[in-house]
């Protein structure tokens, strides 16, 4: 199979090109996103997903949209760009990378008319992507110091190259380890209801030649008891200043189970996902999605009656005390995170 890419700015710089992840693993199809509605829809529907990838898409997206703004004058240009930024941010509330990227693009444009803003915006979105790449590589290096050849690793959701630009966060250590000759045994839980573990993580690791076994979410506890799991690896969508971590729904159950079994639970976190303005997990807005994702989306026939109520939070918050370590690009932080994250990032 040709090397696939998650997203990029098109050669003519007029569109964000993304791999449509809703079609994986059955179809490889790329989309060209050229306007605000298409960008909004692609993020909302998880065609492009994963906190770092959403941030990069928003950065490139703001540059693409800025080129189409009809006003040259700085006040009107900035107002229009801010409105577009607000619109993109409203597509998904939990991953902080989205608003971080939009805010960075707006600061780059501030005080400039369209003509002088465009090159600055291009530089900034390129920087957002390059930084992500470098952070993922550094996180992966740091992660490798925590595991050894032959370890069994449980993953939840997808925190690989499909969720970032390269390597990813939670899967980066496994991908880098493979390049360095490590043989990990990865258990990818399916991650109900949108099945990122089944559709994306097992696909990504399988194609990287890593030993991966797909399990149901509810098999994880048994595997822990059987001694098959030496560590749990997850990504994150927003880490509060005290270390409470929002990530895909079900992450907290993995952490509680890991604690019970004495297995380390690691969160892989680029600094772009830390929200120092958010004191604790209680303040994180959790995205709620349609019940159809639970009842019908991946089934030939509905698995519950139409009239049955559903509650479908897309993320949960894992309490800081349950997290063995947070692995960042600068190093490894340990509990209490309020101090260790602050010391690491000043
Ligand atoms: O709803 P998704 O698929 O965007 O959720 C993604 C996750 O929860 C990932 O684990 C997280 O964004 C980290 S990605 C490096």
Keywords:
single chain; 346 residues; Four Helix Bundle (Hemerythrin (Met), subunit A); Rossmann fold; 2 domains; four-stranded mixed beta sheet
Describe this structure in words.
The strands form three sheets. Strands 6-5-4-7-10-13-14 form a seven-stranded mixed sheet. The protein has a four-stranded mixed sheet with strand order 11-8-9-12, with helices on one face. A three-stranded antiparallel sheet has the order 1-2-3. α2 runs parallel beside α4 and α4 (96-109) packs antiparallel against α5. The protein folds into two domains: 7-136, translation initiation factor eif-2b, domain 1 (Four Helix Bundle (Hemerythrin (Met), subunit A), Up-down Bundle), CATH 1.20.120; 143-345, 3-Layer(aba) Sandwich (Rossmann fold), CATH 3.40.50.10470. The protein is 40% helix and 15% strand. The chain is built from eleven helices and 14 strands. It is of the alpha/beta class and 346 residues long. The chain has helices at residues 36-44, 51-68, 74-89, 96-109, 114-144, 172-179, 196-207, 220-225, 251-261, 292-295, 337-345; strands spanning 7-9, 16-19, 30-33, 152-155, 185-189, 211-215, 231-234, 238-240, 245-248, 265-268, 274-275, 315-318, 325-327, 332-333. The protein is globular. The protein binds 5-S-methyl-1-O-phosphono-5-thio-D-ribulose (MRU). 5-S-methyl-1-O-phosphono-5-thio-D-ribulose (MRU) is lined by residues 46, 49-52, 95, 157, 159, 163-164, 168-169, 196, 235-237, 247-248, 314.
